[in-house]
Amino acid sequence: MSVEIVKWSVSERPSVVTKFLERPAFSSEAEDVAREVLAEIKKNGNHAIEKYIKKFEKIKLTADEFAVKRHELTAARSMISDVRRSAIYEAHKRVVAFSKTSLRKDWSMSCPRGGTMGEQFVPLKRVGVYVPGGAAPLVSTALMTITLAKVAGVSEIVVCTPCTEGENLNQAMLHALEVAGATEVYKVGGIQAIGLMAYGTSTVKKVDKIVGPGGTFVTAAKRAVYGDVALDLVAGPSEIAILADDTAEPSYVAADLLSQAEHGTGWEKALLVTSSKRLADAVQKELDEQVTTLSKRKLIEKVMKTGILIVVVNTLDEGMDLCNEFAPEHFEVMVREPKSWLKKVKNAGAVFVGQWTPESVGDFVAGPSHVLPTGGAARMFSGLTVEDFRRRTSFVAFTRADLKEVVPIIDAFGEMEGLDAHARSARIRFEKK
């Protein structure tokens, strides 16, 4: 099952590359299903959620069983190995450090006549976090989302994640939820989780904003509830692009491509763009060999049919143009002097520079959140940050002299826009009574 290798240039654009680039950010089929399910949840609350948990997740939970009890979270610490516990603590520490460093500070500046203006940042009160768990418990996602909300100062952090062990959650997941700072946890996944958080029920209060990645149906559901709640970004099935030259190690490149193909939705995308035909051939061979050693071989082979592509370009500059057009969620640069290429990256969720920075460090431990835009949305969205959990409010405090100076300007705009009440609200302060 060899992955296809194609030649591409600015003047020659084979249809297979064009089709690969045009992957949809949303599935119309998923959106139809999401709208139907969400409408019923909005109308029938817990009853509808029970129904769809049984239908989609194949388990039976009643409304009073949705919530994870606090003692279940605290007990999980002693039920996982020292190695797993240590990994969770270390990753959490690094995410906290990055988030605290990136927090924007309140600021102000002087107005021309003695006043002040600036911005202040206030945490959201109640946020919903979706943590995927369909194919596997994504423990790292708990850390890469909830931790940011906690650092931002959110007081109510509601988490929804599907059961992975019968009617229970994975113990490592429970411990990560506790460490990261979740205040409420519900054993609900998929579209029904988005509905629960967006609309609330008789037992669960609605949230102000929903964040977190998910598969095609979760992404469609998030889009459908926009307006009822605020959202973070389009974070669907995983994808990666790698720009490489003849200095790249084929086995590293192949391993990194496969790392994103194993998530299991079947919608994943992995693109290698290289100026070296020798590297392309070697990576093709490595992919065939490495996939046979992986535990999720069948899922990955499904993706390899249409979701992995190797493209040979004439120059690395052309290759960078192609990668920017693809606008990948994850972008690895494995070339000579890789840092010198960083400024040429225009569209990517996150960039991994050099051969010692595999994408997996971003997924698990580096510090920046791994919740990133997919489906080409990196052209217009950024990845999740601590600021997604705060609101920015501007403030203006004019003096009398500041206002007097700008009254003529306000008068002019009021006249241009036919808004005489606007103009009067400033002018009246200087009229003699």
Explain how this protein is built.
Helices cover 43% and strands 15% of the residues. The chain is α/β, with parallel strands linked by helices and 433 residues long. It folds into 3 domains: 5-22 and 237-366, Nitrogenase molybdenum iron protein domain (Rossmann fold); 28-233, Rossmann fold; 398-430, no CATH class. The strands form 3 sheets. A 6-stranded parallel sheet has the order 1-11-10-9-12-13, sandwiched between helices. It has a 5-stranded parallel sheet with strand order 6-5-4-7-8, with helices on both faces. It has a 3-stranded antiparallel sheet with strand order 2-3-14, with no helix packed on it. Strand 9, helix 10 and strand 10 form a beta-alpha-beta unit. Helix 2 crosses helix 8 (190-199) and helix 5 packs parallel to helix 7.
Quaternary status? single chain
Q: Strand order, biggest sheet?
A: 1-11-10-9-12-13
Please give the CATH class of the largest domain: Alpha Beta
Characterize the overall form: globular
Q: Outline the low-pLDDT stretches.
A: none
**Biggest sheet layout:** 6 strands, parallel
- How many helices in DSSP terms? 16
CATH H-level homologous superfamily name of the largest domain: Nitrogenase molybdenum iron protein domain
CATH-derived topology of the largest domain: Rossmann fold
Ends distance: 87 Å
Which CATH architecture of the largest domain is right?
3-Layer(aba) Sandwich
Q: Name the structural class.
A: alpha/beta
Strand content: 15-25%
Provide the gyration radius in Å: 25 Å
Let me know the number of strands. Answer: 14
Query: How helical, in percent, are the residues?
Result: 40-55%
Structural domain tally:
3
The chain-level mean pLDDT equals 94
Strand/helix succession: EHHHHHEEEHEHEHEHEEHEHHEHEEHEHH
